[in-house]
Protein backbone atom coordinates (compact mmCIF):
# COMPACT_ATOMS: atom_id res chain seq x y z
CA UNK A 1 0.00 0.00 0.00
CA UNK A 2 1.11 3.56 -0.71
CA UNK A 3 0.08 6.71 1.08
CA UNK A 4 -0.58 10.16 -0.28
CA UNK A 5 -2.11 13.35 1.04
CA UNK A 6 -4.80 15.24 -0.83
CA UNK A 7 -4.58 18.93 0.08
CA UNK A 8 -7.77 20.66 1.19
CA UNK A 9 -8.36 24.19 0.01
CA UNK A 10 -10.50 26.76 1.83
CA UNK A 11 -11.35 24.18 4.52
CA UNK A 12 -13.55 22.36 1.97
CA UNK A 13 -12.85 18.72 2.80
CA UNK A 14 -15.79 17.47 0.75
CA UNK A 15 -14.53 19.21 -2.40
CA UNK A 16 -11.17 17.45 -2.01
CA UNK A 17 -12.88 14.07 -1.64
CA UNK A 18 -15.00 14.75 -4.71
CA UNK A 19 -11.89 15.67 -6.68
CA UNK A 20 -10.22 12.41 -5.72
CA UNK A 21 -13.28 10.39 -6.74
CA UNK A 22 -13.42 12.20 -10.07
CA UNK A 23 -9.80 11.28 -10.66
CA UNK A 24 -10.64 7.58 -10.23
CA UNK A 25 -13.12 7.84 -13.09
CA UNK A 26 -10.96 10.05 -15.27
CA UNK A 27 -7.94 7.75 -14.89
CA UNK A 28 -10.20 4.79 -15.72
CA UNK A 29 -9.41 3.02 -12.47
CA UNK A 30 -13.11 2.14 -12.49
CA UNK A 31 -15.97 2.50 -14.97
CA UNK A 32 -18.43 3.75 -12.36
CA UNK A 33 -18.61 4.60 -8.68
CA UNK A 34 -21.26 3.52 -6.19
CA UNK A 35 -21.23 6.50 -3.86
CA UNK A 36 -23.63 8.39 -1.57
CA UNK A 37 -25.15 11.25 -3.57
CA UNK A 38 -27.04 14.30 -2.40
CA UNK A 39 -30.36 14.84 -4.16
CA UNK A 40 -31.74 18.33 -4.92
CA UNK A 41 -34.02 17.88 -1.90
CA UNK A 42 -31.02 17.26 0.37
CA UNK A 43 -31.52 13.53 0.86
CA UNK A 44 -28.53 11.19 0.71
CA UNK A 45 -28.84 8.03 -1.38
CA UNK A 46 -26.39 5.65 -3.08
CA UNK A 47 -26.09 6.03 -6.85
CA UNK A 48 -23.96 4.41 -9.52
CA UNK A 49 -22.13 7.30 -11.20
CA UNK A 50 -20.30 7.03 -14.52
CA UNK A 51 -20.04 10.76 -15.36
CA UNK A 52 -17.27 12.51 -13.35
CA UNK A 53 -19.08 15.86 -13.54
CA UNK A 54 -22.03 14.44 -11.61
CA UNK A 55 -19.73 13.71 -8.67
CA UNK A 56 -20.18 17.35 -7.67
CA UNK A 57 -23.20 15.97 -5.80
CA UNK A 58 -21.30 13.10 -4.16
CA UNK A 59 -21.31 13.29 -0.37
CA UNK A 60 -19.62 10.30 1.30
CA UNK A 61 -18.93 12.48 4.37
CA UNK A 62 -22.60 13.12 5.16
CA UNK A 63 -23.22 11.76 8.69
CA UNK A 64 -26.37 9.83 7.83
CA UNK A 65 -27.09 6.18 7.10
CA UNK A 66 -30.39 5.26 5.55
CA UNK A 67 -29.37 1.80 4.41
CA UNK A 68 -26.37 -0.50 4.41
CA UNK A 69 -24.92 0.13 0.95
CA UNK A 70 -23.19 -3.27 0.85
CA UNK A 71 -26.57 -4.71 -0.10
CA UNK A 72 -26.63 -2.45 -3.16
CA UNK A 73 -22.99 -3.24 -3.93
CA UNK A 74 -23.95 -6.89 -4.07
CA UNK A 75 -26.60 -6.24 -6.68
CA UNK A 76 -24.20 -4.51 -9.06
CA UNK A 77 -21.44 -7.09 -8.66
CA UNK A 78 -22.86 -10.52 -7.98
CA UNK A 79 -23.13 -11.77 -11.60
CA UNK A 80 -21.29 -11.46 -14.88
CA UNK A 81 -21.08 -9.54 -17.13
CA UNK A 82 -20.40 -6.52 -14.97
CA UNK A 83 -18.36 -3.35 -15.14
CA UNK A 84 -15.39 -2.28 -13.04
CA UNK A 85 -17.13 -0.78 -10.04
CA UNK A 86 -15.70 1.34 -7.25
CA UNK A 87 -17.77 1.20 -4.07
CA UNK A 88 -17.49 3.90 -1.40
CA UNK A 89 -18.42 2.32 1.92
CA UNK A 90 -18.24 2.87 5.66
CA UNK A 91 -16.42 0.30 7.85
CA UNK A 92 -19.59 -1.59 8.79
CA UNK A 93 -20.62 -1.69 5.14
CA UNK A 94 -17.21 -3.03 4.11
CA UNK A 95 -17.51 -5.81 6.68
CA UNK A 96 -21.02 -6.59 5.47
CA UNK A 97 -19.73 -6.80 1.90
CA UNK A 98 -17.21 -9.43 3.00
CA UNK A 99 -20.00 -11.51 4.55
CA UNK A 100 -22.14 -11.17 1.42
CA UNK A 101 -19.21 -12.40 -0.69
CA UNK A 102 -19.05 -15.53 1.47
CA UNK A 103 -22.80 -15.99 1.07
CA UNK A 104 -22.43 -15.69 -2.73
CA UNK A 105 -24.46 -12.48 -2.74
CA UNK A 106 -21.63 -10.20 -3.94
CA UNK A 107 -18.33 -10.44 -5.74
CA UNK A 108 -15.05 -8.62 -5.23
CA UNK A 109 -13.97 -9.39 -8.79
CA UNK A 110 -13.71 -6.22 -10.91
CA UNK A 111 -14.45 -4.20 -7.77
CA UNK A 112 -12.40 -1.49 -6.07
CA UNK A 113 -13.36 -1.00 -2.43
CA UNK A 114 -13.03 2.55 -1.11
CA UNK A 115 -13.34 2.75 2.66
CA UNK A 116 -14.05 5.93 4.61
CA UNK A 117 -13.52 6.14 8.38
CA UNK A 118 -16.84 6.77 10.14
CA UNK A 119 -17.16 9.49 12.77
CA UNK A 120 -20.78 8.61 13.53
CA UNK A 121 -24.09 8.82 11.69
CA UNK A 122 -27.64 9.99 12.35
CA UNK A 123 -30.90 8.30 11.43
CA UNK A 124 -32.56 9.77 8.34
CA UNK A 125 -35.36 11.68 10.17
CA UNK A 126 -32.80 13.24 12.52
CA UNK A 127 -30.49 14.18 9.65
CA UNK A 128 -33.36 15.70 7.69
CA UNK A 129 -34.41 17.76 10.70
CA UNK A 130 -30.86 19.01 11.12
CA UNK A 131 -30.65 19.90 7.43
CA UNK A 132 -33.89 21.85 7.66
CA UNK A 133 -32.46 24.02 10.42
CA UNK A 134 -33.68 24.77 13.94
CA UNK A 135 -37.38 25.01 14.62
CA UNK A 136 -38.73 28.04 16.42
CA UNK A 137 -37.69 28.03 20.05
CA UNK A 138 -35.95 24.66 19.82
CA UNK A 139 -32.53 26.05 20.69
CA UNK A 140 -30.95 23.48 18.35
CA UNK A 141 -28.46 24.48 15.66
CA UNK A 142 -28.54 23.47 12.02
CA UNK A 143 -26.23 20.75 10.68
CA UNK A 144 -22.53 21.55 11.14
CA UNK A 145 -20.56 18.85 9.31
CA UNK A 146 -17.33 20.84 9.55
CA UNK A 147 -17.50 20.67 13.35
CA UNK A 148 -17.95 16.89 13.22
CA UNK A 149 -15.03 16.48 10.81
CA UNK A 150 -12.87 18.57 13.13
CA UNK A 151 -13.30 15.94 15.86
CA UNK A 152 -11.50 13.36 13.70
CA UNK A 153 -8.11 14.75 14.66
CA UNK A 154 -8.53 14.27 18.40
CA UNK A 155 -11.04 11.41 18.42
CA UNK A 156 -13.38 13.35 20.71
CA UNK A 157 -16.38 12.23 18.69
CA UNK A 158 -19.74 13.58 19.75
CA UNK A 159 -23.07 14.28 18.09
CA UNK A 160 -24.21 17.81 17.59
CA UNK A 161 -25.82 19.31 20.68
CA UNK A 162 -29.46 18.37 20.96
CA UNK A 163 -29.14 15.28 18.77
CA UNK A 164 -27.92 11.70 19.06
CA UNK A 165 -26.00 9.36 16.80
CA UNK A 166 -27.69 6.16 15.69
CA UNK A 167 -27.76 3.55 18.42
CA UNK A 168 -25.36 1.30 16.49
CA UNK A 169 -22.81 4.10 16.07
CA UNK A 170 -22.77 4.85 19.78
CA UNK A 171 -21.42 1.36 20.50
CA UNK A 172 -19.48 0.66 17.28
CA UNK A 173 -16.03 -0.66 18.19
CA UNK A 174 -14.87 -0.74 14.56
CA UNK A 175 -15.40 2.80 13.21
CA UNK A 176 -12.13 2.71 11.26
CA UNK A 177 -11.41 1.07 7.93
CA UNK A 178 -9.26 -2.01 8.49
CA UNK A 179 -8.95 -3.25 4.93
CA UNK A 180 -9.86 -1.78 1.52
CA UNK A 181 -8.21 -1.11 -1.83
CA UNK A 182 -8.38 2.61 -1.06
CA UNK A 183 -8.72 4.07 2.45
CA UNK A 184 -9.66 7.65 3.24
CA UNK A 185 -8.08 7.96 6.67
CA UNK A 186 -10.02 10.54 8.68
CA UNK A 187 -8.96 9.63 12.21
CA UNK A 188 -5.98 11.58 13.46
CA UNK A 189 -5.94 13.99 10.52
CA UNK A 190 -6.42 17.73 10.32
CA UNK A 191 -9.07 17.48 7.64
CA UNK A 192 -9.11 21.22 7.10
CA UNK A 193 -5.57 20.89 5.70
CA UNK A 194 -5.43 17.52 3.97
CA UNK A 195 -6.82 14.00 3.66
CA UNK A 196 -4.51 11.03 3.97
CA UNK A 197 -5.27 8.29 1.45
CA UNK A 198 -3.80 4.79 1.43
CA UNK A 199 -4.13 2.80 -1.78
CA UNK A 200 -2.76 -0.24 -3.53
CA UNK A 201 0.32 -0.03 -5.74
CA UNK A 202 -1.72 -0.92 -8.82
CA UNK A 203 -4.20 1.91 -8.28
CA UNK A 204 -1.38 4.31 -7.41
CA UNK A 205 0.26 3.58 -10.75
CA UNK A 206 -2.99 4.21 -12.63
CA UNK A 207 -3.33 7.56 -10.85
CA UNK A 208 0.18 8.52 -11.90
CA UNK A 209 1.80 8.30 -8.48
CA UNK A 210 5.33 7.65 -9.67
CA UNK A 211 8.45 9.76 -9.98
CA UNK A 212 8.14 10.04 -13.77
CA UNK A 213 4.83 11.82 -13.44
CA UNK A 214 5.45 13.99 -10.41
CA UNK A 215 4.44 17.11 -12.28
CA UNK A 216 1.12 15.56 -13.15
CA UNK A 217 0.60 14.58 -9.52
CA UNK A 218 1.25 18.12 -8.39
CA UNK A 219 -1.28 19.52 -10.83
CA UNK A 220 -3.94 17.23 -9.39
CA UNK A 221 -2.95 17.99 -5.84
CA UNK A 222 -1.26 14.77 -4.77
CA UNK A 223 1.91 14.93 -2.75
CA UNK A 224 4.75 13.93 -5.03
CA UNK A 225 6.73 11.24 -3.22
CA UNK A 226 6.30 7.63 -4.28
CA UNK A 227 5.68 6.49 -0.71
CA UNK A 228 4.49 9.55 1.16
CA UNK A 229 5.17 9.84 4.87
CA UNK A 230 2.39 11.15 7.03
CA UNK A 231 2.81 14.53 8.65
CA UNK A 232 4.42 14.53 12.12
CA UNK A 233 1.15 15.41 13.86
CA UNK A 234 -0.73 12.50 12.32
CA UNK A 235 -1.64 9.98 15.03
CA UNK A 236 -4.18 7.69 13.41
CA UNK A 237 -3.41 4.56 15.45
CA UNK A 238 -3.50 6.48 18.72
CA UNK A 239 -6.79 8.20 17.91
CA UNK A 240 -8.39 4.97 16.66
CA UNK A 241 -7.40 3.23 19.89
CA UNK A 242 -8.99 6.05 21.88
CA UNK A 243 -12.27 5.93 19.93
CA UNK A 244 -12.44 2.14 20.06
CA UNK A 245 -11.91 2.13 23.84
CA UNK A 246 -14.71 4.64 24.37
CA UNK A 247 -17.14 2.84 22.09
CA UNK A 248 -16.27 -0.57 23.54
CA UNK A 249 -17.07 0.67 27.03
CA UNK A 250 -20.52 1.81 25.86
CA UNK A 251 -21.04 -1.47 24.00
CA UNK A 252 -20.18 -3.66 26.97
CA UNK A 253 -22.47 -1.70 29.27
CA UNK A 254 -25.40 -1.98 26.87
CA UNK A 255 -24.77 -5.66 26.23
CA UNK A 256 -24.79 -6.33 29.97
CA UNK A 257 -28.08 -4.44 30.37
CA UNK A 258 -29.64 -6.26 27.43
CA UNK A 259 -28.57 -9.69 28.69
CA UNK A 260 -30.11 -8.93 32.07
CA UNK A 261 -33.30 -7.85 30.37
CA UNK A 262 -33.36 -11.00 28.23
CA UNK A 263 -32.92 -13.09 31.38
CA UNK A 264 -35.90 -11.31 32.99
CA UNK A 265 -38.25 -11.03 30.03
CA UNK A 266 -37.00 -13.45 27.42
CA UNK A 267 -36.91 -12.64 23.72
CA UNK A 268 -40.70 -12.64 23.64
CA UNK A 269 -40.82 -9.95 26.31
CA UNK A 270 -38.23 -7.68 24.72
CA UNK A 271 -40.03 -7.95 21.38
CA UNK A 272 -43.54 -7.81 22.84
CA UNK A 273 -44.44 -4.71 20.81
CA UNK A 274 -43.35 -6.29 17.52
CA UNK A 275 -46.04 -6.11 14.82
CA UNK A 276 -44.09 -8.36 12.42
CA UNK A 277 -43.85 -5.65 9.80
CA UNK A 278 -40.61 -7.27 8.55
CA UNK A 279 -38.88 -3.89 8.39
CA UNK A 280 -35.86 -5.22 10.27
CA UNK A 281 -35.56 -8.14 7.89
CA UNK A 282 -35.90 -5.92 4.83
CA UNK A 283 -33.29 -3.44 6.10
CA UNK A 284 -30.85 -6.17 7.14
CA UNK A 285 -28.28 -6.71 4.37
CA UNK A 286 -27.53 -10.23 5.60
CA UNK A 287 -31.18 -11.39 5.24
CA UNK A 288 -30.89 -12.17 1.54
CA UNK A 289 -33.14 -15.22 0.99
CA UNK A 290 -35.17 -14.79 -2.19
CA UNK A 291 -37.88 -17.10 -0.85
CA UNK A 292 -38.54 -16.28 2.78
CA UNK A 293 -40.68 -18.46 5.00
CA UNK A 294 -42.14 -15.39 6.69
CA UNK A 295 -43.21 -13.87 3.37
CA UNK A 296 -45.00 -17.05 2.37
CA UNK A 297 -48.58 -18.17 3.20
CA UNK A 298 -47.19 -20.53 5.88
CA UNK A 299 -48.29 -18.25 8.70
CA UNK A 300 -51.59 -17.17 7.13
CA UNK A 301 -53.79 -19.48 9.18
CA UNK A 302 -57.45 -20.20 8.63
CA UNK A 303 -59.83 -18.01 10.68
CA UNK A 304 -61.12 -20.96 12.72
CA UNK A 305 -57.55 -21.88 13.65
CA UNK A 306 -57.17 -18.51 15.38
CA UNK A 307 -60.53 -19.07 17.07
CA UNK A 308 -59.50 -22.52 18.29
CA UNK A 309 -56.29 -21.15 19.77
CA UNK A 310 -58.16 -18.32 21.48
CA UNK A 311 -60.73 -20.69 22.97
CA UNK A 312 -58.09 -23.14 24.15
CA UNK A 313 -55.81 -20.51 25.71
CA UNK A 314 -58.37 -17.90 26.65
CA UNK A 315 -56.53 -15.27 24.59
CA UNK A 316 -54.20 -15.43 21.61
CA UNK A 317 -51.72 -12.71 20.71
CA UNK A 318 -51.99 -11.14 17.26
CA UNK A 319 -50.13 -10.74 15.03
CA UNK A 320 -48.91 -14.26 15.71
CA UNK A 321 -45.48 -15.85 15.55
CA UNK A 322 -43.49 -12.70 16.30
CA UNK A 323 -41.07 -14.51 18.62
CA UNK A 324 -40.54 -17.28 16.07
CA UNK A 325 -39.79 -14.64 13.45
CA UNK A 326 -36.96 -13.10 15.49
CA UNK A 327 -35.56 -16.44 16.64
CA UNK A 328 -35.46 -17.65 13.04
CA UNK A 329 -33.62 -14.52 11.96
CA UNK A 330 -31.15 -14.94 14.80
CA UNK A 331 -30.52 -18.52 13.78
CA UNK A 332 -29.95 -17.56 10.15
CA UNK A 333 -27.62 -14.58 10.38
CA UNK A 334 -26.32 -13.97 13.89
CA UNK A 335 -22.81 -15.17 12.95
CA UNK A 336 -22.60 -12.65 10.12
CA UNK A 337 -24.12 -9.69 11.99
CA UNK A 338 -21.63 -6.80 11.84
CA UNK A 339 -23.75 -4.48 14.00
CA UNK A 340 -24.67 -1.92 11.34
CA UNK A 341 -27.90 -1.28 13.26
CA UNK A 342 -30.17 -0.84 10.26
CA UNK A 343 -32.70 -3.17 11.91
CA UNK A 344 -33.05 -0.82 14.89
CA UNK A 345 -33.31 2.23 12.64
CA UNK A 346 -36.06 0.57 10.58
CA UNK A 347 -38.26 -0.55 13.50
CA UNK A 348 -41.47 1.52 13.79
CA UNK A 349 -41.86 0.39 17.42
CA UNK A 350 -38.29 1.50 18.25
CA UNK A 351 -37.41 -1.95 19.55
CA UNK A 352 -33.71 -2.59 20.36
CA UNK A 353 -33.39 -5.20 17.63
CA UNK A 354 -29.75 -4.44 16.95
CA UNK A 355 -28.77 -4.63 20.62
CA UNK A 356 -30.43 -8.03 20.99
CA UNK A 357 -28.78 -9.41 17.86
CA UNK A 358 -25.37 -8.01 18.76
CA UNK A 359 -25.49 -9.13 22.40
CA UNK A 360 -26.41 -12.67 21.38
CA UNK A 361 -24.19 -12.53 18.31
CA UNK A 362 -21.12 -11.66 20.34
CA UNK A 363 -21.48 -14.87 22.34
CA UNK A 364 -22.11 -17.02 19.26
CA UNK A 365 -19.22 -15.47 17.35
CA UNK A 366 -16.86 -16.00 20.28
CA UNK A 367 -17.92 -19.64 20.46
CA UNK A 368 -16.73 -20.15 16.87
CA UNK A 369 -13.81 -17.71 17.18
CA UNK A 370 -15.34 -15.87 14.25
CA UNK A 371 -15.26 -12.15 13.48
CA UNK A 372 -17.72 -11.20 10.73
CA UNK A 373 -16.14 -9.17 7.96
CA UNK A 374 -12.59 -9.93 9.06
CA UNK A 375 -11.53 -11.65 5.85
CA UNK A 376 -13.19 -12.86 2.67
CA UNK A 377 -10.94 -15.92 2.88
CA UNK A 378 -12.29 -16.98 6.28
CA UNK A 379 -15.10 -19.54 5.82
CA UNK A 380 -18.45 -19.23 7.55
CA UNK A 381 -18.48 -21.70 10.46
CA UNK A 382 -22.04 -22.95 10.04
CA UNK A 383 -21.59 -23.83 6.37
CA UNK A 384 -18.11 -25.34 6.68
CA UNK A 385 -17.44 -28.78 8.17
CA UNK A 386 -14.24 -29.70 9.99
CA UNK A 387 -13.69 -33.22 11.34
CA UNK A 388 -12.02 -31.99 14.50
CA UNK A 389 -14.58 -29.37 15.50
CA UNK A 390 -16.87 -29.58 18.55
CA UNK A 391 -14.97 -32.56 19.90
CA UNK A 392 -16.04 -31.62 23.41
CA UNK A 393 -19.71 -32.33 22.62
CA UNK A 394 -20.76 -35.49 24.44
CA UNK A 395 -17.74 -35.53 26.70
CA UNK A 396 -18.19 -35.50 30.45
Textual characterization of the structure:
The structure is a single chain. This protein is of the alpha/beta class and 396 residues long. The protein has helices at residues 13-26, 70-75, 91-102, 124-132, 145-150, 167-170, 201-206, 214-220, 236-270, 279-283, 303-313, 322-333, 342-346, 353-367, and strands at residues 2-7, 32-38, 44-49, 85-89, 111-116, 182-185, 194-199. It has a 7-stranded mixed sheet. The radius of gyration is 23 Å and the shape is globular. Residues 211-220 and 223-229 have low confidence and may be disordered.
Could you give the topology of this structure?
Blueprint: E1 2-7, H1 13-26, E2 32-38, E3 44-49, H2 70-75, E4 85-89, H3 91-102, E5 111-116, H4 124-132, H5 145-150, H6 167-170, E6 182-185, E7 194-199, H7 201-206, H8 214-220, H9 236-270, H10 279-283, H11 303-313, H12 322-333, H13 342-346, H14 353-367
Parallel strand pairs: 2-4, 4-5, 5-6
Antiparallel strand pairs: 1-7, 2-3, 6-7
Helical segment tally?
14
- Class of secondary structure makeup: alpha/beta
Write down the Rg: 23 Å
- Mean pLDDT comes to 89
Note the beta-strand portion.
Answer: 5-15%
Shape assignment: globular
Number of strands: 7
The run of helices and strands is EHEEHEHEHHHEEHHHHHHHH
Across the major sheet, the strand order is 1-7-6-5-4-2-3
State the main characteristics.
single chain, alpha/beta, globular, seven-stranded mixed β-sheet, 396 residues, 10% strand
Question: Summarize this, please?
Answer:
The chain is of the alpha/beta class and 396 residues long. It has helices at residues 13-26, 70-75, 91-102, 124-132, 145-150, 167-170, 201-206, 214-220, 236-270, 279-283, 303-313, 322-333, 342-346, 353-367, and strands spanning 2-7, 32-38, 44-49, 85-89, 111-116, 182-185, 194-199.
Amino acid sequence: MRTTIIPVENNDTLAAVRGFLKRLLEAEVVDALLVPMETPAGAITPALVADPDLLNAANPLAPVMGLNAAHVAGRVSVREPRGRIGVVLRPCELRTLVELVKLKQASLDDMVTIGVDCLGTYDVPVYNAMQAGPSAGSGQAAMDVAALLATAQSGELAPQEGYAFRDACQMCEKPHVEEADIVLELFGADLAAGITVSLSDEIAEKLGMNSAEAERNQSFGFAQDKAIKKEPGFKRAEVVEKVVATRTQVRDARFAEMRQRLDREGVEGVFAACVRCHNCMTACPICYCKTCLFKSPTFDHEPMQYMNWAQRKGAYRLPADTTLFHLTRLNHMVLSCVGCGMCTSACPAELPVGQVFRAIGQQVQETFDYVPGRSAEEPLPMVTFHEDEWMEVGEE
